[in-house]
Amino acid sequence: MSQTETARFRLMCRQFNWLAIFMVCSVGALLVLANGVGPFVHWMRTDAAAYEPRYLKGVIWTVPAVCYLFGVWAIGSAMGQLAKGRLIQPTLSDALRKVGLALGIGGVFSVFVMSNLIRLVEGGRGGYLHFDVASMTLGMIGGALFLLGRVMEQADRVQAELDEMI
């Protein structure tokens, strides 16, 4: 890569980092306003025993979104590190593992755990699984990204070992 291409690449990485920060902050603020402020104010005004299940249900519904936002944050952080000049391979393997875990946990939680927690909160109403193809797909992609991150980390170690031999 020439000097100009490297500078352009780092600029785009910096821009993507700021875009990720903006997205995480704005969507996170919307999640807090929609599901966090009301329950907190209600809980402060009354005792914990009177905490309404509908507020807890809203908090449960936000867990996958928080996982996905962590994935966006991890990608933005990786882009910020690349913009500062960190090597691509270790940065990419770390980012793939973090994003894979975030998407995998968010997808699995959305399909299997969320519906059962809501059943507990609402007293047994509802289904055992939330059949959501998008969440299932995100979970599978997350698992694949996590595995790819591990493969890249292993390749980096093998490359370092080969470099020592030469």
Describe how the helices and strands are arranged.
Layout: H1 3-45, H2 53-83, H3 88-122, H4 133-165
Helix pairs in contact: 1-2, 2-3, 3-4
Descriptive report:
With 166 residues, this protein is an all-alpha fold. It has four helices and no strands. It is elongated and about 65 Å long. The mean pLDDT is 87.
Summary?
The chain is 86% helix and 0% strand. The protein has 166 residues and is mostly helical. The protein starts with a helix and ends with a helix.
Distance, first to last CA: 25 Å
**Secondary structure tally: strands:** 0
In DSSP terms, counting alpha (H) and pi (I) runs of 4 or more, how many helices? Answer: 4
Strand content: under 5%
C-alpha Rg (nearest Å): 21 Å
Main sheet summary: none
Class inferred from helices and paired strands = mainly alpha
Indicate the mean pLDDT. 87
List keywords for this structure.
single chain; 166 residues; mainly alpha; 0% strand
